[in-house]
Amino acid sequence: MASQGGDDAAAVALVRRRKVLIAVDESDESIYALSWALENLIVPGRPNDAEEPRVSNLVILLHVQTHPQVFVGPAGPGFYITPEIIDSVKKHQEEISRKVLLRAKKLCDEKHLETETMVAVGDPRDAICEAVEKLAVDYLVIGSHGYGAIKRTFLGSVSDYCAHKAKCPVVIVKKK
Description:
The chain has helices spanning 4-13, 28-40, 83-110, 124-135, 149-155, 158-165; strands at residues 15-23, 54-65, 72-73, 76-77, 114-121, 139-144, 170-174. By secondary structure, it is α/β, with parallel strands linked by helices. β1, α2 (28-40) and β2 (54-65) form a beta-alpha-beta unit. The longest helix has 28 residues, at 83-110. It is globular and about 60 Å long. It starts with a helix and ends with a strand.
């Protein structure tokens, strides 16, 4: 006869944790991708039959701050970058990250999902792929800006890069 404690251990063993990383920025495409994922990919944990484990979701919201760009002309930079300017830019980026993540987390909270937020600094393509690997996520969800081939060639496509380099399945959501 099995003990009560053994049954509890078996029930705990049936819970599978699924980590979904959702890259967010201040664009409408990003919020659309998040909303799509919450409606179509993130399934609230629910008890299933004994053959299929219960799924527990962890939504990880990632916002990437890019390094400030300094443009240098043929005669050198147009102005000197002072520590005050650097601090001002950092504070502005932190405020943007705070607002983006707050907006995204609110959508997750409405669905009663376990959510973590994180900020990375660097090239979004590399930062997203590094987070995927470091956190060992099960899925990456990213919005698509819908750039054409020419614009994608010059600007690069974060979603295209991640689709090829991320070490997990990637869901690219294009706004209708």
